[in-house]
Amino acid sequence: MNKQAPKARPAPAKVPGIYKVDSVRDVAESLNLPNLPDAVASALASDVEYRIQQVVEEAARFMRHAKRTTLTTADIDQALRVLNIEPLYGHFPHNPPAFRRALPFPQMQTAGSVYFVEDEEIEFDRVIREEKISMPKGVSWTAHWLAVEGVQPLIPENPPAAPREIDPDSAAAKTSTANGVSGSVFPLTPPSSDRPSPIQSGKQTQQQNVLVKQTLSRELQLYYTRLTSSLLPPTSDPAKRTAALASLRHDAGLSPLLSYLVHWVGEGVVNTLRGGSQTETDGKLLEVYLDVIAALLDNQTLGVEPYLHQILPSVFSILLYSSLPPSNAIHLRTTAAQILAHLLTHYSMTYPGLPTKIVKTLIVGLIDNKKSRATHEGAIRGLMAIGKEALRQGLVNRSGARTVGEKCMPGESSQLVELVMDGLKLIHPPSAHPVPLDPNSSADSELIEKLHATLGDFFAERVVSDAEWARGILSDEASVL
Asked: What is the reported pTM?
């Protein structure tokens, strides 16, 4: 029995999807891909429709978990992020877009419905009348001192201190009963014949616009006045001065007074050096100021680091000043140089740029031809106190000895010349049995020329007599400062 051949089933008709093939062709043409095959366009349309359905399903999950019945653009964005697709930009859930349906085109009846986002109509008159809003500055960061040892610096970042209303009559009465110490206005300097009284200083401070004050106890104010009065010559007693310096060197409760003492020293140095021609009394004053700085630096309980930028100008002013009293000049410059060495020993690790700043300042005072001989002397003493390599950097590498020798007369034997020679001996000690350089030897003649170029003719003639000393001065390598 013959079996009948099975009937061929007709191929199922393809049901067009939501995303049309024509849309795929339009996108392809916009990307410069004309004549896209029908099979490829249909496959792409099916894939796009699948992706859209996947995104909508994920967004619906976010909607259901949020206990909502309205799908928002935020749900779509979350769904795109979950599917590792770049989210959409331009639509936010707090500002949902409003779509309007466009009117049908008579020329294209089969185009279907077209929707668009309606733009807001803005009137130019209203825009012109509205006040322009300026954009604020961006966020920035900066650093400043809120307080240094209990003292609030007078800078724009810090709020100004609230002014205190002071009655001049009551202030004068309190001042007279407290042995010249005011309870509300603290003088930075003790009263004297050429300085205003505490009452006058209080009136002057009231006239200032902004004033940063620190409330000190009556005991500290009295201590400050007695301390400064006992330190200043010629009225002070040597025993009281020694006791005051010992108190500054060892007392642990002077932190509130530190800023006032530093200011008092700086103001005193400036006023003493301002006159130009110095007397023996001025020299004693400068000695007291240097002793006060040294005592404050020796006190281990005081935080002197924030005040180094105020202490250094006073030390440099005394060390490099051109007209110090002759009887006190050597002692003043030696003490100032020792203070610089103390600062480098104790604070060079805290402030890495401090050695470079100090050495450069001293070298400038040494190699500048316009500076006086006294300034050169102070610079050499400062470099000698710092160390051998700093002295080599100034006298040899930067030709400081040649600068000094150009100002010396032939055969001169002065204190400055002896100081330079001591510096050269510190750089490299002379030999016990000196042998002079031989000009007839090519090596020695080359060394003599180098000596004249580095040290100058004046000091080169004094070094030529010792060949080993000359080679040591020029051959040793100096560390970079």
From this structure: 0.55
